[in-house]
Amino acid sequence: MTLPRLLGGIAVLAAIAVSVLPSAFAADGSFQPNCRGSAKLGEDRAGGEILYKFACDTKIAGYSIISLNRSVDSFDTEPVVLTPAGDAVPGEDFGCSGEIPGSGIGCGGSAGPWNQVNGGVHISTDPCGRGRPRFVVSVADAKGRVAGPYRLMSAKNGGPLTGCPAKATRRHHRK
User: What's the pTM?
Assistant: First the structure.
């Protein structure tokens, strides 16, 4: 399934959810958004680039990307927010900061319902090496209520990071 088709499907589901569900807030006023995202190998494998993207069904005012098993050595300071159709959203953006090296980053800004946040982090080890990198995202609303963590899926089957080459298979020849 292509990304535009997937995002189109998400937009339809979001429209249905918005018409059926009043908001991402429970009856007790707690913040309980539905968020989905992924992580994949970036163009700079040698530099340890990993690209992330995620979207939630309600407006968010901040998020944190947390690495569960690798050290984050650098990151995008200004991730891009896109509509489900892939267009930039005026007035929606984030600024990120964090310790280098560290276990993650924190970002403040704004993204509307189902608008996709796109950014990247760099790790010092080969992202395609043994023990694929694992990341989660936690999100916050304008009142400071936090939800998550939500796993940033890196492969449908739990295999290597999306974009990494498949392992070569050994063929045994009989003599």
Answer: 0.76
